[in-house]
């Protein structure tokens, strides 16, 4: 348990109304979207950069581990409290410190909701491209920690590509500033992109300067039905080989389609549809028809049942709501979702999904796959019953085989969810021992006592 | 001087025909584009990753400093030999190890010429966006070390945005592998982007996996003349505020225009032209006219004298050749060019150039400015006579004032040339002491004996 002196020091640094150690609060902050729970020793709600620095100095002095947390919407245990740690929730740090449409940037605190940044930008004809499925409630601090992405990444890139500069607090409680306010800059090492994706293990981000882009005038959506998974993924590879870059290229397998049926958006699919692509293009209203024609031409091929365009704005919103509901909707299939966010080269997607089918059959498991196929990034969900020990064992065997295959195909363990607690045992299969030790050595420079989000990313 | 035993060990590791310590070779590798010379103790020409690892193990054992070098075309002394060091030239490592158009990537050794990557990609309808002015002869290893860019960065980003993964050798002679082969990946810390822009101070890059993009079908160029600098830069800010992203947005001041007159491309400029913009758009032939119209609308305003489009392919090539000749052509004005590659927010460009004019007058200096205005990235050249001690002193005073102003405007010391030896004394004005010490600490993890490109980036 947290020493009384440490608790008192946190209260003295932040004020008593920003430090809670009652059982109810601790239970509320015990988990993220993974099926694990660890009660933290206390939950802290700093209101400013200075308070974050102050609490970290207390943590450093008293050797208290810190678990940073945005909305707790992560999928890999990144915000799962380390035993004996205090959670630092950034919920109260949600100020927009600067909005500068002329230089196309915004400076925000980490507790700002991702979608709110996009909405603010749109008021000035700009937008914030990264659009994680949890965008309506996740916080930008969590997005930066995990290098979050979403459907638009296929055209616009990931959170890393929009972080110009950061203000942060190291594991010693010291302030650092990284990067710059301009779209180019090579002064010193790129600590901005080192912090982005580091899962809160190097520093606590307290301010982020984010790049914005001009908002596209119009968007058009294609819903494309295929007779089977393989032909759908071959079509993805064809789309990614030609010149018109879609602004989204999403895939759903048969089970994912079944999971969205309650939304009504799958009622009019052609008979025999076993795989679905959602393809989006953006640009000016004048050029969109040509883009859509090019995409339709690339999509055309074996297995194509229907490519439907011309949806109204409301219908498009319903399609996307259905797609974004998938992450939760699949839980109807079985109570526990083991969610793997893997990436393979686009040219190997079809082979990879064949392997998944084979593995699911061999281990008698329900597997649902969907995701950002244009980036080769699939969310592979093993749907299991946690009380069924035999099924859980088979799921673990499947997981091992899937990760091995991802790496054998030239892929990577995580595309946008990060490593957290859930994938760290696989990390040595992707990263060699020398490189991994270098990462640990870098961590020690930021956080010599290992207080920042311990138990994440690195294998034991 | 290099101990005989170290020289023998290098010869034993690489073969005698890859290690030279004769005076002529050492003199050839004594400088880059800066006006300084330091003869290295020897020059090494490794032919493979394994040879780089072998030579670095020798350097580690014998505590020999290493100066990595591509084409020596850098502007900041990044390849200037540290006293007592050996130059490692990557000229002989110029294999394309893999070209994979389907997954839009290429794997290259560091000695490959940048333009050759672009040419190879175009054979498959793709392109490699970063286009430094020295692209015809600079090497991709140097581009990665300095995070090189060029005109296309305004739309397509910089070298950092195209490096997917790296193979490299640390200061201990150990191999590391960073990143992945896919467009998304968040497994472990982002060492790829930590190495890019680190100027060869963290590791020697031996292989790079680079992302390619679909080549645009067509390009159109506007040459836009203004009555003065301020109105031209106000027009740049207007262009960057609207939705059509130019694929280049280059600025030349009066002296830069005069410097390209010998090329003949300035013969038909309207009388009274004192500032020039080159604005490019790319896309399909069908959509280009609309893009050009939008850009022309944004450019229109006070001071506009002429916006000329419809150049033939050859004329465009001549315009760009003239623009790219500037870096050398300005040397006609005075024998020494003190070249500053600074960045300010686009909205502050006009104020910054006003300040430059004021400073040039106050210090009685000839200053030539041109560059990538769409990114706020100007190449400010103080043209001086090195034998004129008073002028050199005034140039140093001007330089101090310019750097202070850049930072006061929210800019950064370098956009694409890097810090090298030339700007390191200014670094503490941009990067605070804690952050800078963290960078040094990171360097020690990669290179505990400080053997990799010493004397660069960090102030003494």
Automatic annotation (TrEMBL), chains A, B:
Residues in FAD-binding PCMH-type domain copies: 36-215
Superkingdom field: Bacteria
- Has keyword Flavoprotein? yes
UniProt entry keywords in alphabetical sequence: FAD, Flavoprotein, Oxidoreductase
Required co-factor? FAD
Q: Which InterPro entries match?
A: FAD-bd_oxidored_4_C, FAD-bd_PCMH, FAD-bd_PCMH-like_sf, FAD-bd_PCMH_sub1, FAD-bd_PCMH_sub2, FAD-linked_Oxase-like_C, FAD-linked_OxidoTrans_Type4, Oxid_FAD_bind_N
Query: What is the protein named?
Result: FAD-linked oxidase C-terminal domain-containing protein
Q: What is the lineage of its organism?
A: Bacteria, Pseudomonadati, Pseudomonadota, Betaproteobacteria, Nitrosomonadales
């Amino acid at each position: 348990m947290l020493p009384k002196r440490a608790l008192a020091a946190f209260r003295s640094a932040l004020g008593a109304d920003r430090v809670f150690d009652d059982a109810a609060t601790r239970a509320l902050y015990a988990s993220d979207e993974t099926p694990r729970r660890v009660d933290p020793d206390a939950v802290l709600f700093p209101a400013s950069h200075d308070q974050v620095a102050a609490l970290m100095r207390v943590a450093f002095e008293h050797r208290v581990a810190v678990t940073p947390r945005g909305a707790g919407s992560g999928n890999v245990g990144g915000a799962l409290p380390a035993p004996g740690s205090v959670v630092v929730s950034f919920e109260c740090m949600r100020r927009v410190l600067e909005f500068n449409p002329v230089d196309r940037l915004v400076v925000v605190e980490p507790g700002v909701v991702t979608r709110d940044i996009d909405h603010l930008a749109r008021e000035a004809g700009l937008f914030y491209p990264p659009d994680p499925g949890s965008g309506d409630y996740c916080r930008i601090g969590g997005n930066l920690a995990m290098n979050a992405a979403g459907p638009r990444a296929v055209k616009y890139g990931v959170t890393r590509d929009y972080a110009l500069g950061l203000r942060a607090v190291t594991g010693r409680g010291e302030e650092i500033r990284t990067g710059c306010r301009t779209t180019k800059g090579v002064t010193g090492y790129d600590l901005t992109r080192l912090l982005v994706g580091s899962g809160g293990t190097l520093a606590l981000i307290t301010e982020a300067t984010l790049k914005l882009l001009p908002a596209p005038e119009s968007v058009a959506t294609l819903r494309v039905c295929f007779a089977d998974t393989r032909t759908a993924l071959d079509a993805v590879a064809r789309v990614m080989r030609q010149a018109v870059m879609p602004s989204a290229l999403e895939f759903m397998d048969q089970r994912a389609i079944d999971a969205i049926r309650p939304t009504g958006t799958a009622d009019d699919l052609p008979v025999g549809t076993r795989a679905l692509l959602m393809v989006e293009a953006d640009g000016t209203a004048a050029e969109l028809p040509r883009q859509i024609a090019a995409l339709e031409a690339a999509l055309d091929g074996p297995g194509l049942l229907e490519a439907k365009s011309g949806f109204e704005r409301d219908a498009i919103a319903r399609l996307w709501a259905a797609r974004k509901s998938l992450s939760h909707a699949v839980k109807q299939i079985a109570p526990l979702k083991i969610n793997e966010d893997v990436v393979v080269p686009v040219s190997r997607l079809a082979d990879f999904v064949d392997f998944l089918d084979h593995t699911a059959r061999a281990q008698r498991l329900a597997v649902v796959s969907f995701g950002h196929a244009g980036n080769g990034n699939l969310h592979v969900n093993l749907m299991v019953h946690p009380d069924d020990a035999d099924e859980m064992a088979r799921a673990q065997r499947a997981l091992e085989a899937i990760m091995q295959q991802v790496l054998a195909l030239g892929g990577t363990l995580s595309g946008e969810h990060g490593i957290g607690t859930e994938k760290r045992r696989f990390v040595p299969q992707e990263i060699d021992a020398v490189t991994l030790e270098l990462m640990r050595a870098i961590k020690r420079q930021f956080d010599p006592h290992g207080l920042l989000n311990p138990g994440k990313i690195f294998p034991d």
